[in-house]
Amino acid sequence: MSGLPGGFWWLWLSTLVNRTGAFVLTFLSLFLTQELGFSGWYAGLVVALHGLGGIAGSPLGGMLSDRWGRRPTMVTGHLAAAACAASLAVVTSPWAVAAVVLLMGVAMQSVRPAIGATIADQVPEHDRRRAYALNYWALNLGFAIAATGGGAALFLGYRTLFLVEAVATALCAVIVFVRLPETRPEAPVNADGERSAAPRLTTMDVLRDGPFRTLVLLSLLVCTVFSTPWVGLPLTMTSTGLAPESYGVVIAVNGVVIVVFQLLVNRITEGRSTIGLLVVSALLFALGTGATALADTPLLFAATVVVWTIGEMVYIPVNAAATARLAPVHARGRYQGVMGMAWSVGGFVAPVTAGWVVEGPGPEVLWLGCAAVAVLAAVGYVVLLRRSLGGDDAAGGAEGTKAAGAAGAASAAGGAGAGAAVAVGRAGSGGGAAAGRVGGGGDGRGEPSDGVATASEGPAATAVGAG
Fold this sequence. Notes:
Layout: H1 6-20, H2 24-35, H3 40-67, H4 70-88, H5 94-122, H6 125-148, H7 153-156, H8 158-179, H9 203-207, H10 210-227, H11 229-239, H12 244-269, H13 274-292, H14 298-326, H15 332-359, H16 363-389, H17 395-415, H18 429-438
């Protein structure tokens, strides 16, 4: 874990603090139904609004981090999220609750592109994959710590836990403001000794980058598959006659495996081909979700979770590093923002699709469909991105060339007018916690993720992300 700059570890600490106090998404559906007396339908709608806010917040955060700066974007986003968490402790109107949760989704997701861009700014290319993996590990470790304190809700009440999250998120903002330097690269100096303005890219300009657009679309497929178990798994398990409580135990395996084995996975994958790892992770998602169609006991369901969790541990940091690698230096925030938006879309679509398929064609169709989509993504990585991401040995020198080329293309586009990117309660408190990481997309988890996805954006009780 040595060799990374000091600024990265302050960012890592802020992620850990932030996720250690992540209680809102964990208990939101239970708070709405049990304490405020709203229907399950309304609770599901509110959770979906959080994801919808993330879809808007990710490109917004990416744009702000490139124009305004990484640090002010993170500080503002954290403080806005803290204000939203505190507001949930006092508001009771259904319209007010929905508005606060929507804004909270925007605020939380707006931070993640800035985090991803900051890591790319601070960490040399050869160490970025490890840095993204460590940040994702901090996200899950924080969720694991938060999950252990979930029982405090029985004594303190949901509102108190929401205030705890507000304080933790505000503390995160303080850490970033006091200890983290601004890392946004300065514009180059021209022949007259003046700094030239970097081209201002829009989301559409970013999506005109063919290799990155392909990476985003393939990530959308993977994220949709990854997000499906958080809703489809509890529905599938209850349809086989298993008690709802068994889902909490099974999904806890996800967080335990990540916290215990993420660092080992980092060592195993270090220095290996980006395309190879993306393909392997997609195939692990295919194997894990496809095998769910055959499972009928808690032990077998847990085994499938282990398989796709390994895929998750490989995929999240590799995809985040690939995003940073394809991004021009002056547009790292926007690229991370568009990728985060893909994770948010996947996290929004998957719950709706999973519920409909399980209730209609059946669970087997859902899981075999997930396997087919993941295999399609694996094939896409090999066929469509092998040339763009296959030359890992030349990655370090390629980034500068990429930045210059993209800047020129963006300037030309500017001259032409272009202007130069879950379901209710996750079947109980275990599933509600899962929403914190996925809804973050991959955050992440998304967080993804914080690049990480949302995302993406935990363990046994999560969704992210990190991202």
